Amino acid sequence: MAGHSKWANIRHIKAAKDGERSRITSEFSRRMRAFVRETGQIDPKTSSQLAKLIAEGKSKNIPSATIERVLAQMSNLKNASPILLEAKGPAGSVMLIEAISNKISHTRSELQSVVKKCGFSLFDGGSMARLVFEEKGMVLVDCDAEGKPDADAYVDVAIEAGAEDVTVEEDEEGGKVLQFACEPNDVYAVKKELEARQLPVRSADVVFLSTSTVPLDSSSLEAIAKAMERLEEHPDVLKVYTNVVEA
Predict the structure, then answer these.
(1) What protein family is recorded (predicted)?
(2) pLDDT at 1 over 60
(3) Domain extents for the chain?
């Protein structure tokens, strides 16, 4: 699992386009969505965990408008259905789009319009997703800011918690996190076990990791980066994955 950071592909092609502030804001928004989806807690007045997460965001200068927009979005989507779409592009490139919507046909139409402008065709997720991506549970734990994280020191913890592997990865802000990988159905059980050991769990989610990559030239990467940026701005989109790397 080493090197398979959940951000690796996206960050690789977007680093030149997105500034540090944009990356931090996008990642924080994803964390908030994942938290609300996992817990169903939407009101920071009644959820100390959500209040703590929001306070963390404000300490990183995440705009209040962004926080309020994410909460409003997730509140409106309480009874929505999940959507998994795949966009196929040149040379075997694929984007996998996770979304949630009350109006699936409408959302699909809007996302199709975005990817079509970048030379991609949109399909319901399934066949290609299983060939190109591997679904994994990922639990992220904050590292000691003053120490040098050593994944080997957490191998026994990972085994006892039910994880398959633990690695040190780089997050969207350039910091280090411990990444515990597990089966998708075990992600929240692993999270609970790590929290019971007093480890500072940052997030727990099911993600898609590319099992094979497609090298593309800079102009093609720029087009995909633009498409991903527009997709991630859509209020119904939770995450976007890709299998492309720089040639």
Answers:
(1) Belongs to the TACO1 family.
(2) no
(3) 8-76, 81-132+212-246, 133-209
